[in-house]
Amino acid sequence: MKIKTSAKINLNLAIKSSEVSHLHRIESLMVPIDLYDEINIDRNSKDNDSIIFKNNLVLTNHSTIHKALFCLRNNTDLDNFFDIRINKKIPIEAGLGGGSSDAAAVMVSISKICDLQLPAFSTITKEVGSDVPFFINGRSAVVKNVGDKIEDYSIAHDIFFLIIIPTFGLSTKAVFNLWDRIQNDDTAADSFPLTRDVTIFNHALEPAMRLKPEIKNLKDSIEKLLGERVFMTGTGSTLFSIFDSEEEAADAKSKINIDNRLILVAKKIDYSYKELSD
Question: How confident is the prediction for the chain on average, in pLDDT?
Fold first, then answer.
């Protein structure tokens, strides 16, 4: 089975508190976007999995896909093994959810191949990752609690993003750990009304900027250059700006000449998971 699985943008992120499990309660409106990893999954006849990231040897040895397979075997009757090949195009430690998207896609695909019922979202968040249920659900949604409560959220109009991914990443754990220490400070940051019902904000922005002051410098410089508001998705380090059309976003991209890992135009999509072939 060959699949594509997408990245996401957090239009907002409220951090509520830290749980005993060390997961944080959040509330976030997330949308899938058309930036994809590609994954091939084949059942094998061996007694072990073969997981290879074509362009990242570190992830080949330890990734959310490894956690996803462990979770399936620990909570279902799965007794098959698989050859899994990943062409990773979503940058890691960028707040785009690439690892969670990969894990979700593998869990959904294997559940189809082997006719399995997936574990409860509460189990998946603890054993695999907090963003994984969002990608299993696949649609724009408000994500609550520790990531295990998903409420579909319809956004009828198109949203186009200019996405700026810096050359450095950020550890989600480090951002949340710093938020725990400074949560009595002003971590709400500024907010921006996208529509009557949707406000853009990010409680992780302040700790992210304290960990990486380059984020503030980059954000300020792009805002000055474009004359547009710039935001951070998730726990960073990716920045984004919003436009009404692909043409406007592409025009903004043409004005940026900054040394970053990746600058691209993307759009909100309806569903994060796409099967390409059997």
Answer: 92
